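Recall that a protein's primary structure is simply its ordered list of amino acids. Everything else, from secondary elements to tertiary packing, is in principle encoded there. The following example makes that idea concrete.
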Amino acid sequence: MLGDVLPAEAFGFLLVATRLVALIIVMPVLGDTSIPGRIRAGMGFLFSLVIYASVRSDLPPMPDNAFIVGSLLIREFVIGVIMGLATRILLTATHTAGTVIAFQTGLAAAQSFDPAQGSQSALVASFLTLVAITLIVVTDLHHLMILGMANSFVKFPVGLGLPYTDFATVITHYVSGAFLLGVHLAAPFIAYAVIYNLGLGLISRLIPGFQVFFIGMPINLFMGFTLTMILIGSIMQLFLERFEELLVSFLG
């Protein structure tokens, strides 16, 4: 009797762990590259233990064919990666906003490592991403991500076919939504840059000998830092509101 139960329990736990470990490794905040891989794998194992107890009755029985077992594991891995990528896409709104702000204020040449992107990015983009990650943890939005891990087994039950069309539609929707949110966050800087550059152009035409670049560049940097200091609170508040809405609509 025990010899029949243990393999079935191990198979069910392996299905849950495959999806959750893949999700945690890819998703933002919990799966950032700044967190050691052993810690991420440990979190995935602990979450799997807790969530497996709640979804155990909904899991399919262990099949006799090894190929079916492999296909189920691959399916769970793909679902975890896609869900993790979808949540990470939401965070790229701050990267988009920071990049736009950097170009508009003349700080695009200043580069630093962005942990969310895993590569070099504009300094402003890295700063906004770090602030966003900090606020997500402070406001407990990462708890919503953990809740979404358990709800994923309700939205995408184990054993059913992969909804490729639905996944493609969802990813397209959130990519466009994240880009639009990034533009909205950087909208004040875009308006400022248009007015400022028009003013410099008019001065250059009215006073041909005026050194527009040497005078305008320091002023542009000063105004960029000043606007960032004034607007950073509103920008992050808008991001957290939209991030929570998009996260709830996707993770349920």
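Residues 2-251 form one domain. The first strand starts at residue 111 and ends at 114.
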